[in-house]
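Hypothesis: this fold can be encoded by more than one sequence.
Test: take the structure tokens below, design a sequence, compare later.
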């Protein structure tokens, strides 16, 4: 019988807390709704995901450069982008218990909690407002960015002139975004503070749909290359009537989360909307002189926009397994080595010298190359379990025989198979297996 969804998510959330992947924010004060802290293992995993993205999107390509723009931007940016007028959700409030809901997410037009009638919907802007400087007045209002994308558009001219690159050219960044979502939930799936990985890929008009198709398949393949099972991924093209105001077309990459399919990333053809809007609002000409046609053009842009936290949740959900092992059940995260927070664990069979000395030597060699762990507490079986539970692909066990034959045991997480390897060949053996 299939496991209830709630149980599966509860188990994953509990593992994340127990092993230091993700904690509720400000927990000693009772937590802050929908805000999360990444723990010692979580921060490693998140960095790995971001690095894998940065490497394939920026470092391995000649046609993409990176940026890191500020979270606070000139308020006119959000007028030009359409966020001040258009970035809102319909909010309804229960007339009796005052609970608030997103009108478009309710199946019936009555309160989900007490069944009472609801107010008329009003548009609620999702941007967080704050004030710049000491005076809290309208003139000093600034917003926490609701997407990283606008930092890329407003730097188009700076990037083109400083890099002297030609189209097609992508500009990419990773960073925090903030949205005052009416409803949050499903752990880190929808929160008010989250991280995005966004690419704005500027192309010549007329080549845009080719590039749209290219980025759609490239981005789908990226998740598969990092271990997500293809059957748990799908593309969901947006119907024309549901497109955002800036998009000519858009397709989501969706993952089958335990509760339902959910968006991991949106790939949009934004046409020339953004450059035109910023040119209009700033008075600067954001155009490109095409040497080939000798024409000045406004580039079109293809935008693959992914969420770091959602990707991490998808990697965790896909990797989580409970497997029978003799009379017990082992919990294991079958994480791809690139995203696993720890790549190698060094486990001496005894805490005593001289085994500890040799093990520490091996550990210090391993950690020069990979995120490594050292664990000498409790039985070896328990230590393997602890590493399985956090997704460590390989364990290296040092036993008394190792002192004699200078060999160690390498145990693989998924198959649990063990091989003996000479210490002199350990690094090369692991490098070949991990490929990271
Ligand atoms: N610049 C385009 C843009 O921001 P989006 O579809 O609104 O597009 C892109 O967001 C991605 O950011 C989403 O696919 C999702 O992964 C992530 N994201 C958006 N809102 C989020 C939230 N409240 N919590 C976590 N991730 C979110």
């Amino acid at each position: 019988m299939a496991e209830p969804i709630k149980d599966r998510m509860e188990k994953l959330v509990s593992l994340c807390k127990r092993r230091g992947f993700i904690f509720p924010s400000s927990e000693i004060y009772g937590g802050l709704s929908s805000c999360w802290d990444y723990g010692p293992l979580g921060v490693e995993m998140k960095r790995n995901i971001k690095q894998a993205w940065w490497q394939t999107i920026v470092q391995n390509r000649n046609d993409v450069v990176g940026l890191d723009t500020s979270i606070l931007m000139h308020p006119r940016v959000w007028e030009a982008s359409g966020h001040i007028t258009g970035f809102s959700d319909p909010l309804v409030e229960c007339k009796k218990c005052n609970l608030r809901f997103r009108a478009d997410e309710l199946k019936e037009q009555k309160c989900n909690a007490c069944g009472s009638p609801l107010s008329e919907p009003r548009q609620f802007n999702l941007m967080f407002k704050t004030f710049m400087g000491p005076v809290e007045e309208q003139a000093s209002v600034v917003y926490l960015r609701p997407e990283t994308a606008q930092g890329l558009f407003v730097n188009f001219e700076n990037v083109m002139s400083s890099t002297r690159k030609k189209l097609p050219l992508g500009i990419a960044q990773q960073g925090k975004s903030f949205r005052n979502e009416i409803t949050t939930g499903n752990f880190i799936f929808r929160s008010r503070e989250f991280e995005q990985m966004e690419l704005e890929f500027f192309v010549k008009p007329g080549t845009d749909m080719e590039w749209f198709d290219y980025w759609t398949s490239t981005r789908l393949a990226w998740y598969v290359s990092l271990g997500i099972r293809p059957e748990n991924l799908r593309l969901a093209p947006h119907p024309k009537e549901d497109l955002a105001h800036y998009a000519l077309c858009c397709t989501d990459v969706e993952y089958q989360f335990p509760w339902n399919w959910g968006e991991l990333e949106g790939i949009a053809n934004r046409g020339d909307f953004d450059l035109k809007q910023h040119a209009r609002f700033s008075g600067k000409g954001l155009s490109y002189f095409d040497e080939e046609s000798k024409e000045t053009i406004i580039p079109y842009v293809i935008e693959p926009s992914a969420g770091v936290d959602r990707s991490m949740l998808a990697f965790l959900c896909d990797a989580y397994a409970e497997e029978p092992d003799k009379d017990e059940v082992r919990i294991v995260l079958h994480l791809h080595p690139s995203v696993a927070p720890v790549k190698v664990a060094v486990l001496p069979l005894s805490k005593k010298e001289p085994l500890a000395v040799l093990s520490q030597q091996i550990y210090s060699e391993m950690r020069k190359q990979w995120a490594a762990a050292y664990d000498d507490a409790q039985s070896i079986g328990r230590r393997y379990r602890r590493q399985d539970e956090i997704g460590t692909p390989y364990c290296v066990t040092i036993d008394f025989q190792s002192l004699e034959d200078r060999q160690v045991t390498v145990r693989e997480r998924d198959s649990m198979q063990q091989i003996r390897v000479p210490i002199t060949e350990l690094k090369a053996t692991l490098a070949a297996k991990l490929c990271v």
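The first helix runs from residue 5 to 18. The chain has a mean pLDDT of 95.
Hypothesis status: open.
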